[in-house]
Write a structure and sequence with these properties.
Helices cover 13% and strands 40% of the residues. The longest helix has 11 residues. Among the domains are: 35 residues, no CATH class; 144 residues, no CATH class. It is mostly beta strands and 421 residues long. It holds the Pfam family FBA_1.
Length: 421
């Protein structure tokens, strides 16, 4: 039988590396970096069981957290208020709301309002899926102080301005479910058309009420309510000799801009009110090429004033864009939208939004082609929403339709800005 080697003797193995102070320290150090059960090399050593705390997660600077949160959708931020007190305080801070408004530039929605409800669609879903699912919103207006259909007349920074019976407005931010109603105006002499915008010079929001000509009264008073105050104040009357085609103006580049008609010539003019100076200016229109226009509307696309024009012989609508507000040389013809069907009498096309890849959300209004002047009934005004792809000239119908003017549509940018000042 062969003799045993030194390596076969377990006692020799144990004694060949006796524990020292250094090796013991090394073993203790290894315990701080591992988890589980540690068994000594020798059976004479006891089993040591160690339970360690999980490593702490790295913490981000609060400024970086604010930067990340400022780019998220409002719906997520409303949920994140429950994370901790510091997040709740941050998200509810008006300064953070302004930062979020600047950083979150792509969260646009289309709202469609009905008699007692409102449906909300993310704009991106409308351009990618014509069967996009709407979200039912809790409408802020109740029947107890509503007398008729209340149109959304304008939007600014996520706040929608809803006209109430021509004498008051409700300001509503559907993203955060907050609204406020302003004091009513005296309607003994005038009805009013309302507009809403932001004055960057004073960092305030203003509602503008323009008197509607009734009973032959040609004076058109204009009143302004600055959010944070509790009253209306009167400013200079609307320029004499003009009437508004649409008493609700468009907010663009720090102004409220109306399409008006000069009484003496029955020609269209564009009048703007500077919200900072509270003074009026006429905007020079583009050169339409000497044609006689039968339809003209104004709107806002890509934060610029735009015009939708149509002449008697046209089978298309021209969309003009003023790249620099007030500069007549900056007018460009952005698109020509061809007719896609029999639009009936006096069709009117308005672009509500243009995507980055040049898809255009259109609202098309027209009178019923079966209408006869002998009819005693009111005109049947049909309104339809379609998506026009300007790159390949194709159209897609959307399953959102207004019937007889009982619903309204508006594009708005979701925000944390509160209407309750």
């Amino acid at each position: 039988m062969a003799p045993s080697s030194d390596a076969d003797d377990p006692n020799d193995v144990a004694l060949s590396n006796p524990p020292t102070e250094d090796t013991t320290a090394t073993k203790k150090q290894s315990l701080n970096c591992s988890t589980g059960i540690l068994t000594s090399p020798s059976s004479s050593y006891s089993i040591v069981t160690l339970t360690l705390q999980p490593p702490l997660l790295p913490t981000l600077p609060f400024e970086l957290i604010a930067e990340i949160l400022s780019k998220l959708p409002v719906k997520s931020l409303m949920q994140f208020q429950c994370v901790c007190k510091s997040w709740k305080s941050l998200i509810s801070d008006p300064k953070f709301a302004k930062k979020h408004l600047r950083m979150s530039t792509k969260h646009h929605h289309l709202i469609s309002t009905f008699a007692n409800s409102a449906l909300d669609y993310p704009l991106t879903s409308l351009f990618t899926d014509v069967t996009a699912t709407a979200m039912q919103l809790e409408y802020p207006l109740t029947k107890q102080y509503r007398h008729c259909f209340d149109p959304i007349v304008s939007s600014c920074h996520g706040i929608l301005c809803i006209a109430i019976d021509y004498v008051s407005v409700v300001l509503w931010n559907p993203s955060i479910s907050k609204f406020t109603r302003l004091p009513s105006l005296d309607k003994s002499l005038y009805c009013y058309g309302f507009s809403f915008g932001y004055d960057h010079s004073s960092d305030t929001y203003k509602v503008v009420a323009c008197g509607i000509v009734i009973n032959g009264n040609v004076k058109k008073p204009v009143k302004v309510h600055t959010l944070g105050t509790n009253s209306w104040r009167t400013i200079q009357d609307f320029p004499s000799g003009f009437i508004c085609e649409d008493s609700s103006g468009k907010f663009v580049c720090g102004t409220i801009t109306w399409l008006g008609e000069k009484i003496s010539t029955s020609s269209w003019h564009i009048i703007s009110l500077d919200l900072e100076k509270e003074s009026y200016l006429e905007i020079v229109q583009p050169d339409y090429g000497g044609v006689t226009l039968t339809s003209l509307r104004i709107g806002v696309l890509r934060d610029c004033l735009c015009i939708f024009s149509r002449s008697r012989s046209d089978t298309f609508t021209g969309i003009w864009l003023m790249k620099e507000y007030g500069n007549k040389e900056s007018w460009i013809k952005l698109f020509r939208v061809p007719d896609i069907r029999d639009l009936g009498y006096y069709p009117s096309v308005c672009a509500l939004y243009v995507s980055e890849d040049d898809q255009v959300l259109l609202e098309i209004d027209s009178q019923d082609s079966d209408y006869s002047q002998d009819d005693s009934e009111l005109l049947d005004i049909q309104s339809k929403l379609v998506v026009y792809n300007s790159r390949d000239g194709t159209f897609e119908d959307l399953n959102i339709q207004n019937t007889n003017g009982v619903t309204g549509t508006q594009v708005y940018h979701e925000s944390l800005i509160s209407p309750c000042f």
